[in-house]
Amino acid sequence: MKRILVPVDFSPTSKKALKFAAGIALKTKGSIVAYHLITPETTNTVGIYHDVKVINERKELSSLKRLQRLSRKISGDYPGLSISAVVDRKPVVGNILKFSKENHIDLIVMGTQGASGLQKVTVGSVAAKVLSKSEIPVLLVPEKYVSAPVKEIVFTTNFDAADRYAFPFLFQLAGYFDACVTIVNLMHPYDKT
What we know:
This protein has 193 residues and is an alpha/beta fold. The protein contains seven helices and seven strands, in the order βαβααβαβααββαβ. Helix 4 packs parallel to helix 6 (125-133).
């Protein structure tokens, strides 16, 4: 858990995730990459009178400065913490996964707000997609999380063969926090499998 990626959309939930990741990074002597994605403008959205390339460069620079300010603020609250800021372009899920793989990220920490449907009540749609497609561990910080010592970690599983690779990471993480682990498998009451 030396390199932690935190997607940041500047929402209060993503800021909570960044603070939570900071706590992990300090315990593991790791670093954080704060990662923001912008929606690039196209000629359809800005018209023919503007240079799309210049507008997108300004948008990226503005987002980067905002992300760097947030990173400095978090670093100030967690002395010794290393946070870098990266701005990329959408699509969100694909680029989070691609960046993670190309930059040897060990853990993705994301805030989640939830939306509709059982899966989205538990995790937001972007978080759910990252969670289901990621080859590296993803830790979700719920919208209502209040900063407190981690005492319990819940691991949801459908008992895929790949889940066995998560257990060493899971127990290592629990060890950093001296937390107990609860493993949950949700299934439909009429499912006989």
